[in-house]
Amino acid sequence: MAGPEPGSTIQIQSYKHNGQLHRVWESSTVLKATSNNVIGANDKTLVTESDGRTWITREPAICYFHSKYWFNVIGMLRTDGIYYYCNISSPFVYEEDSVKYIDYDLDIKVFPDMTYITLDEDEYEIHRQQMNYPKVLDRILRNNMEFLIHWIRQRKGPFSPDFVDQWYERFLTYRY
Fold first, then answer.
1. Can you give the CATH number for the domain in which 155 is found?
2. In this protein, which residues make up the domain named DUF402 (predicted)?
3. Residue 3's pLDDT is what?
């Protein structure tokens, strides 16, 4: 897979299982791209929802996408620490200058002290029934959620100490 070049700008596009566009982050800077992952960053970027509403992100964020794992991780740099928002999702694909994935509603929010909560299980259940997720998909998503929780507890990957700070420093070299 040909990927984006570090320093280039991409969109991030989130879809639902039925193929409907869910959300678009207009502009993120690529910090690293391999065949297996993309690490990007954005700050005060325009986000467009499927219903046309727009908003601007409030803080810098480091985004971690993997081509084999069914989740992605956004580390948000806030004044009181780093918060993580983890989407249970399909592995990403890169096409048309965009990172694309299917959002499966299940989310994990991780606080600066590394405690976490799971979110949107009710929304997942509604969409699972409405869109007829196959049982094998449900198992894949649940297994990847457990794998992600293991990463959080073990402080692996994007949860490792200094991961977000180091990539944010790299992001600043492209911005200023």
1. 2.40.380.10
2. 18-156
3. 80
